[in-house]
Amino acid sequence: EDSHKDHPDYDSYKDIWAFEGIVFPILGGTMSGQMYDLQGRINLNSLARPIPPKLTDADKKNPDGTLKNPAPVQKPDIAGITRYRLQNLIQEIDPNDSMGPPQDFARIVKDWIDKDQINGNTKPDDAGTGSGAESPFYQSMQPAYFSANTLLVNPTELRLLKNMNKEIYN
Fold it and tell me: Which whole number is the average pLDDT over 46-55?
């Protein structure tokens, strides 16, 4: 209520309710909510995005050799940017590589969410002995389970990934 008096036209992540959340009484209980800044997070599901093709000179010109107006813009490699940000984060939280090299974790997450059963290794290996991990690897666990082969829905899914442990997850 105080934030509405201070700035009636917008809400802000700096408002008291955004830090502490807000609780409303409802019939039979309470309802609560909190605002999160998703721009400051890494969207791991972006690892499954396709890499855009590189533009060539032919893409930028008309058949007569003149430049297209407007000239096409190279689409960003969202998966590559996400992989880079994730690897930097992993280096910070796991400097001893207890969960393996940071690039391996990016491959493991991609294998968890992609729709194929092709291990994300540099060489084909669906047994999970390399840097990625698909369902054959998770089927060897006790208890056995499959890789999701769909986008992450909840952060707790990360606990199921190859090389993940409680300390790293926390």
Answer: 83
